[in-house]
Amino acid sequence: MSTRASHTPQRSPLVTRRGCALGALLFIVLLWLLSLSAFAQTPPTAQQYRPLIARETAFRFGVDSPMPVVAAQIMQESKFNPLARSPVGAQGLMQFMPATATWAGEIAIPGPVQPLNPAWSIRAGVWYDRWLYDRIKTANSECDRWAFVLQSYNSGLGWVYKRQKLSSQPGNYAATGPINPGVHPASQREAQGYALAIMGRWQPLFTTWGRTVPFPC
């Protein structure tokens, strides 16, 4: 029988406390580094547009508006580049297509249509989010409703209605969003992933901006 075990030194309470304190310190440092990593992924220009986003979301959704969702949407659309242009013709922070921008200007945003103007783009984009939000009547939760809103923004409200009509759980985005109602497979993949990227990937970068929408649904 080995005698090594009988001579194993016991750790003193002081050593144990020091180990716990060191572990807690390392955990705090890890959280700090993670927060810095998230902040580093946020474009510097995002803070520049925060007051505009706050004003428009409060106006359209109330003082307790989920501002981080809108900020995350801009992140997904343009990475906060006000001059962003897509290959298919979308423009500005909120990537308005010309026809949609003209329509928004005619019925909701008086004055010249200026999708490359950050103030106009944010104002019109948040208005459009609210317009879609009011037309999503079937949703199991706020998360599901916002997911349908965002999918509508990306691919059209009519296609979301068709997905819901084909679904056995029309209020559940996880069950309904993946349904292809007859669009090109690439368009379906984009529409399905759009809301998930905004609420799951980008929204956590803006949690200090206001109330978030719980995710996943």
UniProtKB/TrEMBL annotation:
<feature type="domain" description="Transglycosylase SLT">
    <location>
        <begin position="67"/>
        <end position="168"/>
    </location>
</feature>
<protein>
    <submittedName>
        <fullName>Phage lysin</fullName>
    </submittedName>
</protein>
<dbReference type="InterPro" id="IPR008258">
    <property type="entry name" value="Transglycosylase_SLT_dom_1"/>
</dbReference>
<dbReference type="Pfam" id="PF01464">
    <property type="entry name" value="SLT"/>
</dbReference>
<comment type="similarity">
    <text>Belongs to the transglycosylase Slt family.</text>
</comment>
<dbReference type="InterPro" id="IPR023346">
    <property type="entry name" value="Lysozyme-like_dom_sf"/>
</dbReference>
